[in-house]
Amino acid sequence: MYQVKFYKGDYIKRLKNANKDKAIAYVEQHFNSSASSQPNYSVVITGSNASTTSKNWGRWYARSISRSFSTKVAGDDGILVGGWNGRGDGNLKHTKMPAILLEPLFASNPQQADIIRSEDGQLKLARILVESIERFFPQGGLIAFSVGHKYKKSNPKDRGAALVGGGTEAGYAEKVLKKAAVMLKQIDNISEQRTIRVMQGDKVLFETAIDEDDDILWDSQRGVLQIP
Fold this sequence. Notes:
By secondary structure, the chain is an alpha/beta fold.
């Protein structure tokens, strides 16, 4: 089973407290921003000393966001080790557990800002995050959540980038993490097998465990999903 704890204060305090609590994974949620309204890519920052698990986790998340929201992936196949010229590195590198900083969509892109503000968009972002945690930390445990920009003692008014059309990066980052926290806490049984789900929006219509080597085939002409 999963437990979730939100960490506040300056970033170094959050990391040290997560270490003290022996969290198994650390997630900091952000949204990207640019002077241009055109950027359309997803990326995950990892610490300069990131583990292989952190890197693989970040790539899996970035690719999943790319497929779900029709974005490209930036960096090294979806990740930036050490951040943007070092920016973001200090948010992660002092953890003793795998840690990632998420930049899935652009607050400065009008279409993506609408997705970020929407209930459906937030649920989809939360679901992808939860699925990434289930995949890379199937044993369960304490998951550390950090809302980017918000709750810093050194800059208490910081809320990150403004969304086109209204709202702030931190405000919606927190909404996504809160939804993900609810989903994680509702997971009763930790599956040790590969699991597939058929979903309508955020509702699970069908779920089953399959062999790791099984191929799943979608026949678009017949409209049939073939499960071994």
